Amino acid sequence: MFSAPSSSSSSSSSSSSFSTRAEKRVTVFGMGRWIRPEVYPLMAAMTFVTSMCVFQLTRNMLTNPDVRINKAHRKTAVLENEEEGERYAQHGLRNFLRTRPPEVMPSINHFFSSSDTTK
User: Which portions of the sequence form the region Disordered (predicted)?
Assistant: First the structure.
């Protein structure tokens, strides 16, 4: 690694400890400079978003009635399968959210929208 020219023995020992610390940072593929505690939140967010994309692409590829991987399904120009399309569109999460109120944080909404003016 890089070391400054030293004039005394104390600075040479500190430069050797610097080189060992720098060598400890280097990993197998040179990713040591990217894998730091400051980068963990970014890595977590990117991992979450990437997993959501993979989930959605896999869901579309395997369960979407418009995607035709099978050769027999590709021969038909228009598929007449309305119940399969309805099952795909009205999945479990959408059925669950249909019964919920359209509020992200109901307690905060009620706190700020209450007309109680007594103090």
Answer: 1-22
